[in-house]
Amino acid sequence: MSFLTFIFKFVFYLVVFVALIALSAWGVARYVYSEELPDVNSLREMQYQVPMRIYDRAGGLMAEFGEKRRIPVTIEQVPLLVKGAFLAAEDDRFYEHPGVDWQGLFRAAWELLRTGHKGQGGSTITMQVARNFFLNSEKTYSRKFNEILLAIKIERELTKDQILELYLNKIYLGNRAYGIAAAASIYYNKTLDQLSPAEAAMLAGLPKAPSKYNPVVNPTRAKIRRDYVLGRMFDLGQLPQAQLEVALAEPVSTTLFMNATVELHAPFVAEMARARMVQEYGEAAYEKGLRVYTSIDPRLQIAAMQSLQDALLDFERRYRWRGAESHGEVIAGDVAAATTLAQAQRVIEGLAAAVVLEASAQKVRVVDALGTTHELDAASLKWIKASLGKSKDRVVLALQPGDVLRLRSGAKDGVATLAQIPDIAGAFVAFDPQTGGMLALSGGFDFALSKFNRAFQAQRQP
């Protein structure tokens, strides 16, 4: 036997021996760990933490309550553009591998041997589903091994589309956004089918580090990450050259739309519905995805709130004007400074904050929080003069630049009507005499001023 033949056989048997040892170790470890693995069948009927939403009788959203913003979608509702962006960013071989990207794992192992540091480890989307639903994010060997076993198990039980749907609905994308539909709403105030390639790429870049690549907090880093994802989409044939160039030139949006788009403002009604659901379901009411439909008629509700506000403001007008709400240092005619001061005032429904620019016996000019200037109408000047008695130049004595006032909504042609926050309170409620259903309710002048619901919480004196 030649020396080369001996070496060849030795290496061959050594490789076979090492492979057998590795397979045996894998089998033993898999048996040991598999006993502790959770049942992945629970993913088939996954209940996401979805906020409670309150609606009027026509289906208009009145309020949303819950810590997490999530709008679950099916995989059929996800446009190819959005799906492609996330696959390009996170796992472009998702539909090819068996749940584990062995190439990525071997790369991570080589990096560990070469540098002594644990890297990302080539986590696939399936492995991220395993981690997000069953494990934690700590970087340990045992957690990584469990993640691999769970990923293989998940791939055997679920289809690729089912796994991708779970991932796209579960991932955290910053600013209370869980899942891609909620992120599209918060970052762009859009539905998924309205996203541009640049916007889809921006969202797809967030799972790696939602804080680091947040377009509002770190627009420069966010753009770098977005452009990387766009480049990957181009390399994978998802974007033609022309669309890539347009997307790369698109500026980064730094606006957040944190609140759900409310179609009917009825805070007293929404609070009543919220309290009832919490009484019924406890704190879980904020996570069960409850959709609460009320009997409120949106047309009558708007009329009821406006009527109550008008009645209380009209009542105030019969009595003395109490003077400026507050005062700030503003030089006469300084529109910019006065606008900034107006913007700093608390928001009160139906009463816009305004700051005096100049005042005389014949004219009072003010500016609101939008930077629009107005003159007080004749009736307002008369009300001010009547409230001050017999001073020689009563309006000048009453007002000076920097004084904060309130204006009634509906100013026209640069002329506004002075108002003040009512001291008197009131309530309005209307029922359907046939069914007993509540059609409209307002528990006070403004919910932000007082959450006390005078229609239901106030007790009549004996």
**CATH architectural arrangement of the domain at 70-249:** Orthogonal Bundle
- Return the CATH topology of the domain at 70-249: Penicillin binding protein transpeptidase fold
How big is the Rg? 32 Å
Alpha-carbon distance between the termini? 115 Å
Q: What class would the helix/strand composition place it in? A: alpha+beta
Please indicate the percent range of residues in DSSP E strands (runs of 2 or more).
5-15%
What is the element layout, followed by pairings?
Layout: H1 3-34, E1 52-55, E2 61-65, H2 80-90, H3 102-115, H4 125-134, H5 141-157, H6 160-170, H7 180-188, H8 197-204, H9 219-235, H10 241-249, H11 267-281, E3 291-293, H12 298-317, E4 326-327, H13 335-343, E5 351-359, E6 364-368, E7 373-376, H14 378-388, H15 394-398, E8 403-408, E9 415-416, E10 418-419, E11 428-431, E12 438-442
Parallel strand pairs: 1-3, 7-9
Antiparallel strand pairs: 1-2, 4-8, 5-6, 5-8, 6-7, 8-10, 11-12
Helix pairs in contact: 2-8, 2-9, 4-5, 4-6, 8-9, 9-10
Architecture overview:
The protein is α+β, with helices and mostly antiparallel strands. Among the domains are: 3-36; 70-249, Biosynthetic peptidoglycan transglycosylase-like (Penicillin binding protein transpeptidase fold), CATH 1.10.3810; 323-419, Nucleic acid-binding proteins (OB fold (Dihydrolipoamide Acetyltransferase, E2P), Beta Barrel), CATH 2.40.50. It is 43% helix and 11% strand. α9 (219-235) runs antiparallel to α10.
